[in-house]
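Case study 2.
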Amino acid sequence: MVCNRKSVVVFLFFISFFVSSVFTEIKTIHVVKENSTFLSIPLILVQGMGYLSTDDIAKIYDAKTNWLPLSKKVILTLNNKEIIFQIGSKKVVVDKIERLMNKSAKLDGSKLLIPLEFVLTRAFANISGFYSEWDYRRLILRISPIPDIFPPRYYSYKDKTRLVIQAVEKKEIQIDSSKEKKIAVKIYRSKVRDVEKSSISINDGVVDSIDATNLERDVLFVINLGTYSGKSETFTLSSPFRLVIDVERIGETTSKLTGLSSVLAPSSTGFSETNIPSDILPPESSIEKETEFPIIENNDTKKLQPEKVEHKLNKIVIDAGHGGEDPGAIGPKGTKEKDINLIIAQRLTEILKKNGYEVFLTRTDDTFIPLADRTKFANKVMADLFVSIHCNASISDDTRGFEIYFLSEKATDRAAAAVANMENSVIALEKPSLSGKRDIERLLLSMAVTEFMNESATLCGTINRQVCSNFSNLDSRGVKQANFYVLRGATMPAVLIEVGFLSNAKEEKLLNRKKFQKEITENIFNGIKEYEKRLK
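Prediction:
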């Protein structure tokens, strides 16, 4: 039953009066879409937690709202899917799956208020089709379409060239071949990954190039045909959804085409070979239309392909702390923290990939990366975990041991606060706009992190248990909490690991040993696996 706003106000007057009485502040935030301000809306702070109204959420994400006053529910409909909020409850049903928000939905007069952090979650992104990023310093909510189209792949054969365009889900497609030597493919309500406008050069005689452009809401591919192109034929395959375009080769025979040419040649303006799904290898030329592309396996490819394992954690970002002009801690023998961090991060990435996880490194070489950009990257790839690797240091050269942190505004103790201050000191190397701490930051900091504090603490516990139960020469300093800048704003469980003290001569020597680096990595990995087993 849908009702008008007046009846909602009357029906829930007392609830709304109570909520209004605890408002602390109202801020104006700007919504940025496609790099331009889309609209400005109020952010309502209730006891330090930021809320948006469902009306404003509907405006931002082109949704519809239905009020059900008798059941005290509000339904938000996006892309033919429903999000059901229960007034006064933390429970929310997202596309028929019940989830818990960190704070309850609150009523203010005729408006239902939802915690801002909800629109930052993966569950909301999957329904809205938009990635949302919150800049709490400048009070900006940035939204951008989630890329759901892979860059095209191509395979050259003696009799044809095959083009494959893969999507995350089934798409509405329009194909226009009316122009000579061109085939235009428009995929509606989509975005191709990592590119606004670019071109793939093929030049195999049948296809010269493929131009790719992200339009406002759609993706346009223009296939520029070559001298020896003939008729074209298109069909689709499922699991995953793919559009296949076969272009006939005519008027040319060559012994050079013995099966397939190179796979996708990366473009310097955006396309990256890392975007090619590893589970789809070049197909045989004689493939039947209604079958799936077979995986060509030989002894080499079997070694290269990771074991297929279903994971509850799909994407993990590993952050090697410090880098470039920021060396981090430096040991008595001159060991630089940034170097040890990178070695362990790369080892951890390797073992995670071998076990079927999709892993991203924030840096792969000796590069300086601002702290805020590290979690920003993790949010952009929609990671399930963020793990930052560091080495510790102390004024006392006797201090030693392993400790692990999760983010909190209040430190566990003075020692934890000192570690956070040391790791945060790199802000001095960043742009002035990133330095300093305003009052509004303290009010809004909890928005992006409180939802994941419990999960982060649990992850800290499993990693700490695995590491410290398997090392007789490494003291456990326990799980702690502190205000680490590098963990701020992460919209996933995030932890910072201090593997040992470089300021301690014995641990500096230990941290440089390859055997220790291997063992510490394996135990961090085991801690991640233990955490994953606890997920429902």
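The CA atoms of residues 145 and 211 lie 20 Å apart.
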